């Protein structure tokens, strides 16, 4: 018998539920199968394919290229979806086959069959080899689903779904097929198991990234950038969704500790949760070389994490694997990660580097779970007091479970600092509260970037410039992707009047967190303090295209407009916001500056009354008095602001704030200025 070898695209199709239909209505089943074959034969011929055989309600065919096979599948699904609808599943794989006069055989045929068995009615599933061939075809869209272990296939296989309009993209929970489970012994708690899996996963990611990008390859080390997209939860309950988000965050946190690798922040990555954008579009928006995506499956208290690494420039899948709970020595695994990285980079780790990479956060699952839940509330970033109190409570609970949990102390310190940023409590009070856990964290672990970041922020709010710079630079040395540290440094250089260093640090912030309205707004306000008001407005116009209704960005643009004396435009923006549209302190200032004193006084009265019930930064009340030209009261409230610890950002900028220029010759104002560690602007 003559045999030949060929590299072909192999397609399997079948009709979902055909056997049950045959039992219910034999005549209808025959008619549907006949229509299926007519559509299949015509389109296969038109696309240059070749039928190998029919088997019951299914077909096996081959094509000369991946593109021809997928284009044919799309055409067929279009016709199958016309009334009467035929529920057809299609699977395609590219591989080497042995062809005889009547049949084809080979592992590739088996894999194509297994992929088709995963599909649901109306879908087209393809292997990574097919997907690689489609990466430059803009008219064919695909979505990564998961990594699977198929029966009688000795390797894990990434599977993708064609996602063109009119084609069904199945949810992971709908995928059954001829697969094998690879779940090992169970742990007492599945969340602890997931932490183990993450460390193993990171070892593989780090090794692959650095093996592919060696020094001297033509690409600079600081060009290594990666975004970890929110992992998909195979389970549909709310608890699993939150748990999966925690998995994503842990991967980002660990990768951020790797020198020379820039990792997009959690805040920007989470913008793509549930997004249907292509990976290439996401990579372009985030300006990254690599994208990591994956899924988490929790089943009967067991966990599986699947991951897929993509080269963003080519949309080629570099590597994919899945991890279950067969490894339990989490602390040893963290040591293995450091060795993998060092070996891949051909670097001998110093004792300090060994210490940082060998650090283990906690061995108490309850402490870790409380910590992760606390981070969830802290990262919501809206400054709501109830959320900050919940975060505070959870970090304290984590500390109760494990008094040596360094990161829980850092989380507690960061929560107190958020009260200051949002003006919810007296800075003096919050700084005292924040200092204790920050120093405790330092005593536990002197090689933690978050600890130095918290200490740097505390020094920043205390007007201790030199100390703040030292702590913040130390945080960056330990964690090169520490966004908050770059942000605080940018503000310090702003208040020194150093435009170059301000832009250098803020550009780093926005590279690492490009979709954060908070940091985009911060940069605009930095331009305000440097007298670069038009730059601030331009930055906000660009940012508002991304976030057209963001209240903070609208506020920052209005602030820069007010500095140019364009008060009516600023008022229009302040009153267009969805919050505090008639009570904002800057709105009161602008009303005063145009002579509308009644409206300004109404806002002043509102803020004074509010101050009797909750903390209102005195600086804000002083600003309204400046609009009313009541300089004595403005000075009184500025002095009061300093007494309660200042409002960090606003008070450091007092010397450069154009709103307070009329006070520059006043001795009381000069006395306040002299208490700050920066030069008086000329």
TrEMBL record:
Keywords: Membrane, TPR repeat, Transmembrane, Transmembrane helix. The chain crosses the membrane at residues 194-211. It holds the Pfam family TPR_8. SUPFAM superfamilies: Nucleotide cyclase, TPR-like. TPR repeats lie at residues 483-516, 517-550. It comes from the Bacteria. GO terms for biological process: cyclic nucleotide biosynthetic process; intracellular signal transduction. One of its GO terms (molecular function) is adenylate cyclase activity. Residues 9-116 form the Guanylate cyclase domain. This is Tetratricopeptide repeat protein.
């Amino acid at each position: 018998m003559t045999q030949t070898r060929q590299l072909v695209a192999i397609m399997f199709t079948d009709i979902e539920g055909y056997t049950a239909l045959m039992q219910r209505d034999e005549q209808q089943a025959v008619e549907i199968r006949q229509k299926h074959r007519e559509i299949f034969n015509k389109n296969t011929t038109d696309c240059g394919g070749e039928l190998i055989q029919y088997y019951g309600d299914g077909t096996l065919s081959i094509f000369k290229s991946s593109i021809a096979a997928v284009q044919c599948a799309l055409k067929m699904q279009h016709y199958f979806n016309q009334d009467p609808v035929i529920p057809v599943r299609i699977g395609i794989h590219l591989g080497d086959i042995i062809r005889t006069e009547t049949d084809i055989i080979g592992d590739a045929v088996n894999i194509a069959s297994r992929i088709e068995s995963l599909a649901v009615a109306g879908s087209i599933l393809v292997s990574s080899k097919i997907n690689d061939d489609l990466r430059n075809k803009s008219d064919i869209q695909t979505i990564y689903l998961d990594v699977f272990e198929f029966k009688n296939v000795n390797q894990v296989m990434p599977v993708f779904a064609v996602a063109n309009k009119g084609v069904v993209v199945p949810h992971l929970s709908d995928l059954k097929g001829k697969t094998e489970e690879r779940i090992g012994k169970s742990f007492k708690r599945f969340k602890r198991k997931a932490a183990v899996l993450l460390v193993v996963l990171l070892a593989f990611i780090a090794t692959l990234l650095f093996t592919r990008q060696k020094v001297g390859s033509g690409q600079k080390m600081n060009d290594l950038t990666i975004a970890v997209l929110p992992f998909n939860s195979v389970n549909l309950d709310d608890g699993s969704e939150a748990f999966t988000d925690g998995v994503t965050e842990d991967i980002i946190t660990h990768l951020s500790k790797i020198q020379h690798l820039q990792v997009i922040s959690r805040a920007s990555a989470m913008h793509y949760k549930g997004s249907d954008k292509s990976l290439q579009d996401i990579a372009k928006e985030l300006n990254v070389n690599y994208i990591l995506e994956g899924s988490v499956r929790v089943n009967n208290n067991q966990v599986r994490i699947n991951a897929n690494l993509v080269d963003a420039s080519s949309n080629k899948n570099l590597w994919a694997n899945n991890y279950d709970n067969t490894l339990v020595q989490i602390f040893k695994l963290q040591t293995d990660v450091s060795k993998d990285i060092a070996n891949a980079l051909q670097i001998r780790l110093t004792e300090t580097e060994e210490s940082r990479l060998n650090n283990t956060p906690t061995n108490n699952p309850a402490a870790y779970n409380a910590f992760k839940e606390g981070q969830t509330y802290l990262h919501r970033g809206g400054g709501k007091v109830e959320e900050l109190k919940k975060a505070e409570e959870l970090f304290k609970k984590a500390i109760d479970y494990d008094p040596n949990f360094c990161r829980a102390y850092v989380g507690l310190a960061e929560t107190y600092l958020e009260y200051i940023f949002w003006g919810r409590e007296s800075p003096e009070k919050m700084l005292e509260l924040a200092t204790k856990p920050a120093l405790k964290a330092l005593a536990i672990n002197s090689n933690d970037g978050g600890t130095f970041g918290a200490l740097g922020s505390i020094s920043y709010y205390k007007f201790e410039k030199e100390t703040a710079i030292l702590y913040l630079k130390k945080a960056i040395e330990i964690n090169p992707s520490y966004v908050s540290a770059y942000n605080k440094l940018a503000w310090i250089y702003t208040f020194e009047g150093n435009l170059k260093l301000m832009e250098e640090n803020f550009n780093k912030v926005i590279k690492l967190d490009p979709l954060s309205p908070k940091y985009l707004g911060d940069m605009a306000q930095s331009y305000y303090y440097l007298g670069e008001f038009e730059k601030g407005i331009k930055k906000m116009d660009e940012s508002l295209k991304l976030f057209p209704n963001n209240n903070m960005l609208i506020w920052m643009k209005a602030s820069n407009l007010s500095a140019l004396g364009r008060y009516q435009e600023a008022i229009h923006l302040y009153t267009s916001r969805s919050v505090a549209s008639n009570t904002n302190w800057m709105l009161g200032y602008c009303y005063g500056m145009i002579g509308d004193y009644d409206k300004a006084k109404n806002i002043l009265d509102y803020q004074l009354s509010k101050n009797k019930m909750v903390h209102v930064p005195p600086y804000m009340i002083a600003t309204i008095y400046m609009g009313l030209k009541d300089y004595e009261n403005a000075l009184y409230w500025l002095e009061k602001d300093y007494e309660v610890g200042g409002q960090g950002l606003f008070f450091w900028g007092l010397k450069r704030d154009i709103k307070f220029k009329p006070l520059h010759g006043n001795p009381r104002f000069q006395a306040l200025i002299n208490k700050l560690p920066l030069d008086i602007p000329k």
